[in-house]
Specification:
Elements: H1 2-11, H2 15-29, H3 31-49, H4 55-64, H5 68-79, H6 84-94, H7 97-109, H8 114-122, H9 126-136, H10 147-171, H11 184-194, H12 201-216, H13 224-241, H14 243-254
Helix pairs in contact: 2-10, 3-4, 3-5, 3-10, 3-11, 4-10, 5-6, 7-9, 9-10, 12-13
Amino acid sequence: MLRAIEEKRLTHPAHRTHRFKELTAGARDTLPMIIGSLPFGVIYGTLVASGPLHLWHGQLMSLVVFAGSAQFIALGLIAGHASYAVIWATTLVVNARHVLYSATLAPYVSHLPSRWRWALGGLLTDEVFAVAWAHYRLKPPGSVGPYYFLGSGVAMYLNWQIWTLVGLLFGAAFPGLQSLGLDFAMVVTFIAIVVPQLVAVRYLGAAVTAGALSFFWQDWPYKLGLLGAVFVGVAIGVLLSVPAFQRTRASEVSR
């Protein structure tokens, strides 16, 4: 019933102006993330151009996969002649964080028709999640349409395709691009994503735990140290979210 009402609302003529504003607002609020990820796309394209894949393979991967970290890891595994099973399993685990993103946003999009939820899920990235969550969490679940989310996702998708192409075209002519330290811009982008979210003890505990463990476990093969740090960080965040733990901590503070 709720989805049928939402279908009518989304197709109503009076809604067209509002949805255009939402689209542009989502794209506008994603601009800082786009600037930060720009060098990341160029470096990815450059690595493809200097690696074992054909140029069109790299562009196709950006078009279909649309997951920067997974694409970088896949490139490294392909260059190392890893098996398809290893490539598939590693990228699957790396992208498992999107399950957490989806669970966080689910209450705000569950009222949408399935075609919308599938489309938005396909556009979900770290940057899009940060922008969409900052927008949605200020409003009651089910009260916001999909267009803000869509504007952010489409902006990031087009950005990734454009700069992948730039990296592919210039990678062969300027093979030293990846050694200029441009990838530091992506580190800054992720800092900008994480820091504004640290508004509670559970978030801070999860971030500090994952950050510390990823540093100490960085020498593990196949980035397994990073994955292990993520899982432990999530576990700490969940533990700190348990009501009993929060009540205990509150009573200790009151003493």
